Amino acid sequence: MYSFEFTKFHRNLGSILSTGRRTPGKIWRWKKSLYLRCKNHPEMTVNRVIYLSSIVILTGCVSLKQTRQEGVQKISDLQAFEGTYENPFSKKSDSEFSSLWNQLNLSEKLDTLDFQTATIGLKVIGKDQIRAAWLQGDREKKSVVLKGKLKDSYFVSRHKRKIIPIPLIYGQFSNNQFQLWLGKDGQLHVDRMQNEWGWVFVFLASKDNTSSYEYKIKQK
Length: 220
Hints:
The chain is of the alpha+beta class. The chain has 4 helices and 10 strands.
């Protein structure tokens, strides 16, 4: 019975975290649920408590901050981001990794075909939603809906999380997020955060990377 309860709790926790939505209320409910299981199942080991607590703490702390103020254009609505922007960040051979589409799509699979000549069109389609379209000339090839919220002149995307847990044996967590802001010259800036951590038995490892890019506007 205990094994079933622990597995069910872990599976539900992983499902909630992987959706990318996290609130203080949810974290409080996770802690309460963990406390009740410890109370009802004294045989629950310290290692299991540490394991579950680590998931809540580590996935709850990592997020992009809106600390830069100098050079940021003050905006009060998402329409300010609308326009067509160059896709490549630079002319270097590996610039597909830093292309605008790759930053917005948050995909593990890169789109490299014709990325140097593509442009990216941004259009507000609803509250807290921007549609990004890959344009080849005047033809749209594909699009993605960006979900987030406007915060202190930044459009901050929802977290994209992935969780691969095997309790106490192996675990891998990844956290992806971007935020958009406009320079006073009208150019689009993207801050991208990629955070990963995991373990095999008791050996922990992590990788954190935050990058910033600027993309030239072609048409407003």
